[in-house]
């Protein structure tokens, strides 16, 4: 009875088979190929990951999303083993009977391109010797494709403090910002970018600041545990104020870097910095930077501690050059 059931199951489902150059074989289900490694889900061994250059050939009774290096061939097909170093697409595939070498495979079942990011909300209320309410929200999202990347960020912060003499609440922080950057990769690590950022700060008398520009970047490292990139370019700076401070329209350089690391599975450290030195007026100097950490609480919720600094060497009349903000908040990933 048991043998009959096994025979029927084999007729219904033929497992994938990976044959290595040393003669070893693993049967199961090929889940993906990425970063030069193949992953097979085996009933007896669990998830097994091995270097693709150790594979002699493989077969798959299930259709695989196969991407060759350079992205010139992308096909969904079953695969037959046809000798060491080669595979062949099934007869019912979009390219029936086509043969490819193992070394030409870039990806199998690549992760779908989609937006990923987080929303962080913070609120602090104090009552007693001092009365204050502090609230903020930050949204960050990124879409990473094979050849491009889009990054979006936006936020709002407000602080209301009770005046001890008038006993009325006064707004001491009110800031809005939003930004979008598009990167196109000319190589796996070198890219060109175009970006724009708008900001409004009522307390700093900043009615609107626009920074828009383009340049080039280098992705020095991009793994699940560590990411580091640098960027250089030119930007157009336009500032309009709500008081008598003259408006500013000028060209600046832009020098930036972005750092993200995971020293532990539940901890993520991040640090970003942008410097805009004026090219026409050397007194124009703007710095936007942050430093913080995210600590995972659940699969989709985390705690965030962050420090931000905004520096303007030529602020509005009556405003300070530096504006520091320290926040503690809860975040949700998507």
Strand content is over 45%
Strand order of the largest sheet: 10-11-12-13-14-15-16-17-18-19-20-21
Could you spell the SSE succession in H and E letters? HEEEEEEEEEEEEEEEEEEEEE
Give unreliable regions as ranges.
2-12
**Total domain modules:** 2
Instruction: Write down the Rg.
Output: 27 Å
What's the shape? elongated
CATH homologous superfamily grouping of the largest domain: monomeric porin ompg
Q: Please give the count of helices.
A: 1
Could you characterize the architecture of this molecule?
The chain has 334 residues and is mainly β. It folds into two domains: 14-108, no CATH class; 115-333, monomeric porin ompg (Porin). 3% of the residues lie in helices and 68% in strands. It has one helix at 2-12, and strands spanning 16-20, 25-34, 37-42, 46-51, 55-68, 74-81, 86-89, 99-101, 105-108, 115-126, 132-144, 148-162, 169-185, 190-201, 206-222, 226-241, 248-264, 267-277, 285-296, 301-312, 322-333. It has a twelve-stranded antiparallel barrel with strand order 10-11-12-13-14-15-16-17-18-19-20-21. Strands 1, 2, 3, 4, 5, 6, 7, 8 and 9 form a nine-stranded antiparallel beta sheet that branches. Strand 3 and strand 4 form a beta hairpin.
Question: Summary?
Answer:
With 334 residues, this protein is mainly β. The chain has one helix at residues 2-12; strands at 16-20, 25-34, 37-42, 46-51, 55-68, 74-81, 86-89, 99-101, 105-108, 115-126, 132-144, 148-162, 169-185, 190-201, 206-222, 226-241, 248-264, 267-277, 285-296, 301-312, 322-333.
């Amino acid at each position: 009875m048991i043998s009959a059931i096994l025979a029927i199951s084999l007729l219904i489902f033929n497992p994938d088979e990976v044959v290595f150059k040393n003669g070893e074989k693993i049967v199961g289900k090929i889940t993906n190929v990425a970063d030069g490694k193949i992953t097979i889900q085996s009933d007896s061994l669990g998830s097994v990951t091995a270097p693709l250059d150790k594979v002699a050939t493989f077969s798959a009774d299930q259709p695989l999303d196969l991407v060759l290096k350079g992205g010139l061939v992308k096909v969904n097909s079953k695969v037959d083993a046809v000798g060491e170093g080669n595979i062949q697409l099934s007869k019912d595939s979009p390219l029936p009977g086509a043969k490819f070498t193992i070394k030409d495979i870039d990806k199998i079942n690549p992760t779908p391109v989609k937006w990923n990011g987080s929303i962080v909300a913070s609120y602090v209320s104090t009552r007693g010797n001092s009365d204050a309410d502090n609230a903020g929200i930050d949204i960050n999202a990124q879409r990473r494709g094979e050849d491009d990347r889009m990054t979006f960020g936006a936020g709002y912060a407000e602080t209301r403090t009770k005046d001890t003499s008038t006993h009325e609440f006064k707004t001491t922080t009110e800031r809005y910002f939003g930004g979008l950057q598009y990167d196109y990769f000319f190589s796996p690590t070198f890219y060109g970018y175009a970006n724009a950022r708008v900001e409004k700060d009522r307390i700093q008398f900043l009615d609107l600041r626009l920074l828009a520009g383009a340049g080039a970047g280098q992705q020095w490292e991009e793994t699940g545990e560590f990411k580091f990139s640098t960027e250089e370019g030119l930007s157009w700076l336009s500032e309009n104020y709500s008081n008598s401070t003259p408006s500013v329209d000028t060209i600046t350089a832009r020098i930036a870097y972005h750092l993200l690391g995971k020293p532990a599975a539940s901890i993520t450290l991040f640090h970003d910095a942008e410097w805009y030195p004026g090219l026409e007026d050397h007194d124009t100097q703007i710095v936007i930077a942050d430093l913080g950490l995210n600590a995972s609480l659940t699969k989709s919720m985390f705690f965030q501690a962050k420090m931000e600094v905004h520096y303007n060497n030529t602020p509005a009349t009556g405003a300070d050059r530096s504006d520091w903000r320290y926040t503690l908040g809860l975040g949700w990933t998507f």
